[in-house]
Amino acid sequence: MNKNWLPFKSKKEDVVIKRHTLNLLRQPHAAPLKVIHISDLHLGFHYSYDDLIYHIQLINDLQPDIIIISGDLFDNIDHYHNPEHLIPLLKTMTAPLGVFFSYGNHDQRIHQTPRISRILSASNIQLLTNTGVVLDFDQEPIFLGGLDDIINSKGNMYQALKNRPDDMLTMMIVHEPDYADFVEQFKVDVQFSGHSHGGQIRFPLVGAPVKPQLGRKYVKGLYRIGAMTLHVSPGLGTTHLPIRLFCPPEITLFNIH
User: Fold this and answer.
1) pLDDT at 248
2) CA–CA dist 36, 19 (Å, integer)
3) Cα–Cα distance measured from residue 231 to residue 221, given in angstroms and rounded to the nearest whole number
4) Are 144 and 66 spatial neighbours (Cβ–Cβ below 8 Å)?
5) Mean pLDDT for the stretch of residues 117-142
6) Does residue 186 sit in helix, strand or coil?
7) CB atoms inside a 10 Å sphere around CB 126
8) pLDDT in tens, 171-217
9) Do the Cβ atoms of 219 and 208 come closer than 8 Å?
10) Residue 151: helix, strand or coil by DSSP?
11) Domain residues of the chain, as ranges?
12) Residue 42: how many CA atoms within 13 Å on its side-chain side?
């Protein structure tokens, strides 16, 4: 297929930067915690090396404290004859408190997670699979956890939170957004998800006619579920067809006070 003729083909320059403010920190701080959330790059499926260069530059220009990638970094790892060549570029995506990633369903279904894990480690991207870390933001501890994929693997909230100290600000990376109804029971402050691509193709007044499994209830943007905030990223890449309609790719910056 000649991709150049496709209508509404997504281009790297179509990306929008959205900003949100959340009041979650337990202590006063001179400056907010800056968190970048991106998702669903689908490297190997119509998402090129040049796309990655462009988007990483935009992310770094925002000077985040934390970068969160909520799954589906890879789609077809064999598309790159040597995907390890991506490591020097991925290493340029930096944040003082770290870059963190949890698997999505596409990462899992290609059955190459050991190789992906090695690439992430060499790129200084910390993989969170049913585990979590305590981060120190200006002497305030923050728990950041991540689940394994729910659809094609074994995401486990109990295991992910087993070492969480009591009463600590908690952020979770969970690829599938509709799992939020379960996550909310665990005193989580904010869940970062992707998976739905915001529908990828949307129509005015109608929304997204096609939604994936576990991405049908919460599709795009911010939601309040009990005491928890859920953010569903429209993603940076595409799946199935390399097109978007009324749903541009997005980099999201959270200023957390």
Assistant:
1) 94
2) 9
3) 5
4) yes
5) 97
6) helix
7) 16
8) 999 999 999 999 999 999 999 999 999 999 999 988 999 999 999 99
9) yes
10) coil
11) 16-256
12) 21
